[in-house]
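Exercise 7. Predict the structure of NACHT domain-containing protein from Microdochium bolleyi.
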Amino acid sequence: MATDVGRSQNPAGLVQVFDGSADTETDLDVIAIHGLDTRSPDTWTWRDRGQSSGPVNWLQDSAMLPSIVGRARIFTCDWPAQMLQKSIPTTLEESAEFLLQTMNHHLEQNTQAGKDRPVFFIASCLGGIILIKALQLSDSPPLVTATRGIVFLATPFLGTAFKDIPYLSLKAWGSFNDQSVSALMDYTREPTPGLDELVCGFLDLQKDKHYHVFAFWESHETSLLGKIHLAWLFSCRAFLVCRIFLVSSLIFYPFSPLPLIFCLWLSGFRFCGPRQLVNESSARAQILERQRLNRSHVLMNKFRDPGCADYKQVASKIEEIVRKIREGTLLKQADAWICDGYYTTERLKISRLSGELVPLDRCYVNLTILQQSGQDAGRSREGTTTTSPFSLLARQKVEIPDKTMQIELASIFKQRKGPGDRMVEPRRILIRGRAGVGKTTLCKKIVYEFSRGAWSEWTQLFDRILWVPLRNLKLEGRRGPVYDFTLLFHHEYFGSRLDLAEELSRALETKNNRTLFLLDGLDEVSQDLTGDGSMSRFLKELLKQPNVIITSRPSANTPPHLDLELETIGFHPDQVEAYVERAFTTPGTGKVDLNRTKEVLSFLKGHWLIEGLVRIPIQLDALCYTWDDFDPESVPNTMTGMYEAIEQKLWKKDVVRLQKMSEYQARGARPAEVQRTVGNELRVLECLAFNGMHSGVLDFTPAHRDDIVDIFPPLALPLDETLAQLSFLRTSDSSTKLKDREYHFIHLTFQEYFAARYFVRQWKEDKQLEYRFKPQKYAAPTDPVSFLRAHKYIARYDVLWRFVAGLLNSEKDDETLRFFNILEEPPLDLLGPAHQRLVMHCLGEVSGDLEIRERLETRLSEWLLFECQFTGETKLATELEFPETALSIAFDKGPYFTAMILRSLERRVIIPSGILAFIAAQFEHKDGNVGLAAIEALGAQSALPTEMVTAIAARLERKHGGVQSAAIKALRAQSALPTEIVTAITARLEDEDGGVRRAAIEALRSQSALPTETVTAITARLEDEDSHVRRVAVSTLGAQSDEDRHVRWAAIEALGAQSVLPTETVTAIAARLEHEDEYVQRTASRLLRSHATHYYGLVSGPSAHFLYRSVLRESFHEQQSWYVIDKYFHVSSGEQTTNTGIHQESIDFKVMISKVQPPNMPDLLASLQLCSN
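Solution. The predicted structure, encoded as tokens:
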């Protein structure tokens, strides 16, 4: 027998009779509600009339209900239930309100204790009516939400047999006892409209909330006058006695009044005799599931022992309902099914190239804001950027953006400024990212962190996250005439439970939709965003969901009505260090190999390009994995060299997986032996990579594999199985069959590397290029040299040409020289900067001497000096690949050029050590402008040598405010400063120059542990009213705009929305290139680029001079090139290239260029030989 917890009412009316299992946490509250004119515990207690056994309370007996409900607490709930009352009669509303207050108090106690348990009610007779009325009154969610199941024991939903008792008899009995009849008796007679409405409302609630409900009804009769102690008068025994007396009187006393009395009694027997108090129809409300018990009404809530047949029926149903409650509602079952069956450890795992798993709580996902409001958008419109968009690191999205633009993944739903500076709470978010920078990791981390409740802001907003890989929508089985959310959920999550899919679909239709969709890979279904098919319609509906995170590669079009656009970026420097440390930590022991960690980090600091590239997670993983195979004497110093080393290590791993070597053989094999063994597999990768580059394909489908399978000798394994074993490829979904999988390279740069290998192979062997993917967009040259000439200025081939130069450099010098000579041959860029960038990028991959290097670097310095003169600034110098030799040549041309170039270096993420030494030497330059520019150049460097930091700190004492501000800005970038330098900065808080004071505070803000006196000095600056006024003034001035100016460029931009413009309109826009407002010029130029087919006509017209110089100016900032091939005039802008046939033989590009080119521009006329032929 369970311990009796007493009858202390806590809260009022609620008494705990069983406290659950002592050694486990309770997860359910069972609450029993008695009926009319009774109370607990009597209602629930069986008493044997023969006194052969003691009373049995089945709610409390450990062998009865407690054994059924297990980890549950059991309560009884008393409410004012007297049938005859001395006060004003109690109404249904009053009784229900009492129950509601009792339950709300109980539920509040649960919440405060952090135990929001579901509630299961056992309601006897009229207690069931009181309960459903309380649920109706509970317009606040606690009781309605907590209730999960109800068993009704003879509840009169449609009245009782009391309707047959003359109501006057009850009132007479009440008057005899000086009492009134409870108003609740109205609900035991004929069903009233109010009761019908109450029952219908409950049935709707039960359906909406998915309550588990069951009703029991009695099969035996009950005396209707039992409550007024006259039941004996109309019992069956009395009927038998009356008949005997009647017969006797008729025999012995023919004229006796007894027959008349018997007739009167018989009439009363008809109304007041034993009846079925609550019949089946009333107990089931004509709809509920029900079952009868072979007992009378008064015994429906009492059972002798566990062996009682009726008890077994009730216990069985209670056990079933409790089990379902613990399983949850259909919606909760759906959520649990997804969390347990779909978001499995296997599906969420992140593997290193070595095969080791990466803990998801240690995965880094860095985001930066792309879509910003008002002022920021305006700045981007003005065209100012902090770093060169042409550098390899910028192309790979691994440069570290401004801190104000970075955002933590866990806080992306926080309120922030939106368009028009209005505050928005982002709910529709797009996250872009290139292949390999962590979009898959992003999705897995979101699911993992949400599932374990790590991000409280998310769990407060959403009940569930639905991760939908959009690529699955392309599967053949989903291309039916109709597609909807139910089918999506059925296909993705509930293959065998259509009911769960339907329930989850219904949850989306509620007003308070707390479902967050994680739509992964919009770019993979971009073809379905147009059209009117069933899948197109469904995809558009899916993208319209109110709560959605969409991931995509940069190529996809932006969906409408987004609140926030983000972009995944690479690791931060501290994350690189932490990753390297973990990569060389011994599993199990946790011991870090400090020597190897130090070697890798030292290597990265000495190789700026590789240091930038390894901010891409997969690149860093590959470097750590292959580190032990690097020759200490020949560690690669170029990107190509690093990729070659990584390739060799991964082939050693894959040759075993391909079953072409044993582990022992692979361990001792030379790189050339391994590469010869996997020669066919290597050619497959090269062919896929090159054809993908040419056709713009990143994901290789079964159809793509069919396009190439016939050109290779038989592989050791079938093609599908071969690709599954290669470390260079990954599949979007490893759960699909091999033949149905799509593959992509582990990072875009690996596809570019293998495409370059294919090109170099065909180049060296003098073979034609093969285009295998169908259909071909255009007829491309098959000769490698012709292909190079046609594609050398197209932006997406930039990294490929870098790899080609590097791979040729590892062969013979004459091949490298031939490559550069062909680069220098026509067609050449008629503007110039695009060609210089191509040359510098390829030179960066060539180590050692090259016959024409000196000439190429000298020409680069000439272009650098020309840019300074022509634009008043330089972008070429901001590129990491710009050769140090070319910079040194330019530095010798005088202080004007030196200062301008030094200031441009501030926009570099990394400055090579040789250039750093030169910068330090300029601190004491006799030209103060050069010294100031040298300090400004270091403003973005976070880990300067100690001696340089000390030299900068010494500039804090200079009286020149500009030097002081620049010095503090450079110091602010340092992650940790020596104490003496912190003291020197603190002294500047009292400087007369407000700019110095402001910069000093910002410099100290980056330090995590400041001395007390420094903190005090900063606090004192809170009263610096002048500084505050100046800051507000600057902000105010920055918000001003030239309204007329905006009207001018807005008018031009409005024309840009037109797909086709008349020639006269284009001419009018071209005239704006002469406008005195530089921004209007750039806006006009940008618009003309979108109608580049008109360029050919404009270069021979009156606007040629302004058009050429405008585009030339922009070509230093953006990817722009003009060139002529086979009588076609090509305009290349970013990824877009247009061409126009040359029909006027009279146009002489030599003459045209000579007329419009600026003074001091390096000679371009030698590049126009093709045009004169």
